[in-house]
Design a protein that fits this description.
Aspartate Aminotransferase, domain 1, 457 residues, 5-stranded mixed β-sheet, 14 strands, Aspartate Aminotransferase, domain 2, 2 domains, alpha/beta, globular
């Protein structure tokens, strides 16, 4: 008999969490203006807001923290991190930052100018914010299949090569670089194939353009290539990562995801010109070049986390838990972006709350209902996150409207997944009773979903 699946780690420390009553949650979510970001952490039972910085570090990472070098310049911890990044990616130049959006801010300050057009596959919120905040345009070139949540194809995060070439033909002089997000978060945590990365690189060279990878979940992307793409089944995760980054000229990373640290990020490149151009912004915004926005102890933890999380067993355990939750939702007929993503499940909110009009933000409404049902905090990845069109100031409703349930790494058990599934089923069973959503009372001009204030209708 084949042995059942079990985690590739054992638990050494636990943290208590508490349940609450619906009456308490009604009060708390109203005080938070129906924005789940504004809830206090102790008001949440199972927290699926994000997998960013919420994972559990390993014993080796905690040990690395104790021997961190906090020297202002030339710290040993920086060189530990630099050597690890170069080993995994092949990139020679590394700039540490305090997180991924800081890496984007530093690099884009050098590269992005007003009027530029940056094509990519479903730019995530901070990426789009750093582009549009500089009065440039983030042009989505994701494959159309990504919009059909019930379609099962292995690499739904791919760049549409025809769309990309059309953009390069029409706007070549205005395009400073191409950006590819691995995995594609906004499209539902969907991976990008090696063949697609190869094609993007080829077309970039044809038009003499550079390629940047938004690499927050690059290790999960490598896992999917190993499991789904022909010719990679026998390759190690590290071998696949090395090949992926051959097709990029630089990367930005929020290390709080696949680096499994609470805070940190970096830029890496093999272009000395870009390194020289970006490093003055690092000093201006983040700190000196060998610490950027990070402590020495955190750079040590990150170096170890990157090494550990580019091994198969760690990734397999993590992604298996997401797949477990997906199978539970399949039992209840709850529609999500298929196939299951690497770090989260993305519930297709308009297919669940069919009576809530798009103008009343179905995914945010579903997030509120799930919190009220069981104290579970998810995150809207949809019409609120899309912000308004920078020219017309109209809401952008052309994309997907998803409730993301992001699973922190090595934090919850499958019993918690069962609670999530049943709570979502309870909301799904009364979906026809939910006929109104929310309206905006106040919003920021960019990345409004973090601070928006809403009224329940």
């Amino acid at each position: 008999m084949e042995l059942p699946f079990a985690e590739s780690w054992k638990i050494k420390m636990v943290e208590p969490i508490r349940k609450s009553t619906r009456e308490e949650r009604e009060k708390w979510i109203k005080r938070a203006h129906y924005n789940l970001f504004q809830l206090r952490a102790e008001e949440v039972y199972i927290d699926l807001l994000t997998d960013s910085g919420t994972g559990a570090m390993s014993d080796r990472q905690w040990a690395g923290i104790m021997v961190g070098d906090e020297s202002y310049a030339g710290a040993k911890s920086f060189f530990n991190l630099k050597e690890t990044i170069e080993k995994i990616t092949g990139f020679e130049y590394v700039i540490p930052t305090h997180q991924g959006r800081a890496a984007e801010n530093v690099l884009f300050s050098y590269l992005v100018k007003e009027g530029d057009i940056v094509p990519g596959n479903s730019h995530f919120d901070t990426t789009k914010g750093h582009i549009e905040g500089r009065k440039a345009i983030a042009l989505d070139c994701t494959i159309d299949e990504a919009k059909n949540t019930q379609l099962e194809i292995p690499f739904k995060g791919n760049v549409d090569i025809q769309k990309l070439e059309k953009a390069l033909e029409e706007y070549c002089d205005r395009i400073p670089f191409i950006i590819v997000t691995i995995t594609n978060n906004t499209a539902g945590g969907q991976p990008v194939s090696m063949e697609n990365l190869r094609q993007v690189s080829k077309i970039a060279k044809k038009y003499d353009k550079r390629v940047i990878f938004d690499s927050a979940r690059f290790a999960e992307n490598a896992y999917f290539i190993k499991m789904r793409e022909e010719g990679y089944g026998k390759k190690s995760i590290k071998e696949i990562c090395k090949e992926m980054f051959k097709y990029a000229d630089a990367m930005t990373m929020s290390a709080k995801k696949d680096g499994i640290v609470n805070m940190g990020g970096f830029i890496a490149t093999d272009l000395q010109e870009w390194y020289d151009g970006a490093k003055s912004y690092c000093v201006q915004y983040e700190g000196y070049l060998t610490y950027g926005g990070m402590n020495g102890r955190d750079m040590n933890a990150l170096a170890i986390g990157l090494d550990e999380n580019t091994e198969f067993d760690n990734l397999h355990t993590r992604i298996h838990q997401v797949e477990y939750l997906a199978k539970r939702l399949d039992e209840f007929g709850i529609p999500y972006q298929r196939p299951a993503g690497g770090h989260a499940l993305f519930i297709d909110a308009p297919k669940v709350l069919t009576c809530v009009p798009k103008e009343e933000f179905p995914a945010q409404t579903l997030a509120i209902e799930l919190y009220l049902e069981a104290g579970i905090r998810g995150c809207e990845i949809g019409y609120l996150l899309a912000d308004r069109d920078p020219l017309t100031r109209e809401n952008r409703f052309e994309g997907l409207d998803l409730l993301r349930l992001a699973i922190p790494r090595r934090v919850y058990t499958d019993n918690h997944m069962d609670v999530i599934a049943v709570a979502l089923k309870n909301v799904y069973d009364r979906r026809n009773e939910i006929t109104r959503g929310v309206e905006i009372l106040w919003e920021a001009p960019l990345m409004r979903h973090f601070t928006v204030q809403l009224k329940r209708l």
